[in-house]
Amino acid sequence: MSRDQSAPDILLVEDEPSLAHLYARLLGAAGWTVATATGAAEARRLLAGEPRAVVLDLNLPDADGMELLQEITGRRPAPTVIVVTVRGSIRTAVDAMRFGAYDFLVKPVASERLTTTVRNALDRSRLIRLVDDLTDGTRDGLGGMIGSAPAMQAVYRMILMIAQSAAPVLITGESGTGKELCAEAIHRFGRRSAAPLVAVNCGAIPQALAESELFGHVRGAFTGATADRVGAVAQAEGGTLFLDEIGELEPDLQVKLLRFTQTMTYRRVGDDGSTQADIRLVCATNRRLAGEVAAGRFREDLFYRVNVLAIDMPPLRDRDDDVVRLARHFLDRFAGEEGKRFEGLTAEAEGLLRSYPWPGNVRQLQNVIRALAVLARPGTIDGATLATFLHAGGADVAAAAPTTAAPAQPDPRLVRPLAELENAAIEAALAAFGGNVTRAARALGIGPATIYRKRGRPGGVDVSE
């Protein structure tokens, strides 16, 4: 079970109000959240929030401090405990350590000594929980990901092993497999979790704006730059920058990204000076980047820069019964949103879920179940109902695809406006490439900007999602 993100970092148990206020102010100034208790009863109540560290005064008005120490260290998961007392005897220190205390401080405690000891205690707590996660056996999910298939267990273990590192990560996998959720989990379980995670879809940025989107620009840098803009790198300062679909980057921007990964410095468009960045880089792609390198479409040196640690997200068809678990999860979620109640899935429906190849992976499953929750009658979902929604998606794409076969005799009734035909072709291409604008544009023989431009006209396709 993951820790409540609203839980305090530190529980401070101190019966002297002036000292409790002083310690809380010092620890809060260091960037940690602190809950304060003046006695054992209040401390027991606040322990339910699972703080990562406890600063414990052994001299309490309503209980023996050593007994409370043993209670705390016997909890699972147990926070790291620092004992603070005026009784600075060797015997007291030895007893406290024997009962599980991490460190022992004697009043009056210097502010630097207190913050350093607490910082070390929090680091210890994080490492202990990480080891517990790694040795916890089978998991039903991690972060926002759901599934217990062996392929996903390998993903969870890898995430937890690399989350604490500062090295770049490359997440690979087909469209719809959950690469962004993987990136979010890496950030959440890492040392930068308190700072922002900033995601950039490299395939959705018009080429002319890509550099500004990443690095920002100054006022007057180009036509339309009426004010300074903070780029994604600056927004992610101290945290994680997630570059989704990095394989779609144009060669010019690949060069600039390479320079950034080498020096961790960048220059805003139109700016003369460079800025030092402190971010962790996580990238994702549904392409085989090694093949892109061989074909000359992706820089080899950049590939080795971003591919330091690698995670491959498995396709849904390789995840055993996860497809049924995910379907139930989505059905409950979307039924709640629609104010409906479904009794679940029949065995026939579950068998269909397992046998279907799911080319669009989890995203396709989610969309099918969403449509089903909106349009199907409440009750139990049987195989025939599920099949209707499965085939509806494929039929829509096929119907939207333009045909090259001419009718035997021209029929004016079959003539459609050119804009409708263009929209149909664009919709079919976007569906075929999982919403990837760059790849759809390449297949259609047009530029990505053309798709965005046609989106803005009346009746144009929507590629905003």
From TrEMBL:
Residues 145-374 form the Sigma-54 factor interaction domain. The keyword Phosphoprotein applies. GO terms for molecular function: ATP binding; sequence-specific DNA binding. PROSITE patterns: RESPONSE_REGULATORY, SIGMA54_INTERACT_2, SIGMA54_INTERACT_3, SIGMA54_INTERACT_4. Keywords: Activator, ATP-binding, DNA-binding, Nucleotide-binding, Phosphoprotein, Transcription, Transcription regulation, Two-component regulatory system. SMART domains: AAA, REC. The keyword Transport does not apply. Pfam families: AAA_lid_14, HTH_8, Response_reg, Sigma54_activat. It comes from the Bacteria. CDD domains: AAA. This is Fis family sigma54 specific transcriptional regulator /two component Fis family sigma54 specific transcriptional regulator. It comes from Stella humosa.
